[in-house]
């Protein structure tokens, strides 16, 4: 029995490979959840390649588990920054013996090792790790969709737009392909032929949903009258979560397509697997950046609209509170959506919620004022906006600036 284990990380997850007892001791001492890495799939792909029979046997002789890398799990496993690759998309490996680091290897270089010394095994392991990270994300998005509406499938299917009907068709085809993959352990040419044209459909559907959110943000930005803000707030409350669900659903299906694509490349062109993995990762980051920009902009506009309503609460006591409540609800939905895609860290989400609570507090206090209500409203509103100004990040700055302008403008 060997006490040596090998760790491989791509920044999203950590593969722990070695003797089963050693792997179990390492993960057990850290107390982190893990799932089977499934290196047997790499072994089957390697068996068809010349000169890697020994590597295949090494794969078979080792246990392998995958752990999602978070600040908490890295701290629990005492990895700190060791697992960050030197270049974007690169993979770093560590050989540990008796609980201590004995080697740190950058996979993009040619370095001696044991299991880690075979480029085909490393590329295969990194490819599977990318798949597991995306499957973990798919699970988290599925949980988000289940929480926001247990009948989300009914919501999507009720949409009459042809572009959404096409997305639902892609969902069914991908579900079938994933089922076949689970039963066969691979993605055949026949299976891939059924799904390879789906990327354009998912991209157009996601773009369509983001355009709906962007259009709403634009309308909110251009509206300064409370009546118009109230109407747009009602529209946002009724539709934003549905469009967020469409975006999340598309992202989940795009990850499923990428999982199948990596399997197909491993099966058909294993030498290209690592470059393909890096390319898919870059494309995924671009999609996330686009979604992040659109939803941050909408969150900015929603909060600014709440500032306008707070500033006019005494003049329109029957309208303004409803605007604030609707906007608080929508902003919370956006924060939750961003969290499901890993776009919102805990601190930023907390700051956004504090702003929303401050806006609600301002409204309640203003409604309780008497003869000096107008001055009190402005004083309280300015206090809430001062708190908003202390928030960090791009969205917070936009919220405070726009809301302050709403207070300063003549009514």
Description of the structure:
This protein is an alpha+beta fold and 411 residues long. It folds into 2 domains: 115 residues, no CATH class; 260 residues, no CATH class. Helices cover 69% and strands 8% of the residues. The chain has 15 helices and 6 strands. Strands 3-4-2-1-5-6 form a 6-stranded antiparallel β-sheet, sandwiched between helices. Strand 1 and strand 2 form a beta hairpin. Helix 7 packs across helix 9 and helix 9 packs parallel to helix 11. It starts with a strand and ends with a helix. The C terminus is likely disordered.
Structural Rg: 26 Å
DSSP strand (E) fraction? 5-15%
Biggest sheet strand order reads 3-4-2-1-5-6
What quaternary form is this? single chain
Question: Could you give the count of β-strands?
Answer: 6
Residue-averaged pLDDT, rounded? Answer: 74
Shape, principal axes of CA atoms:
elongated
Number of domains: 2
Broad structural category? alpha+beta
Could you give the distance between the termini?
79 Å
Number of helices: 15
Query: Largest sheet, described in full?
Result: 6 strands, antiparallel
Low-confidence segments, given as residue ranges, are 50-55, 104-113, 369-411
Order of helices and strands: EEHEHHEHEEHHHHHHHHHHH
- Helix-residue proportion: 55-70%
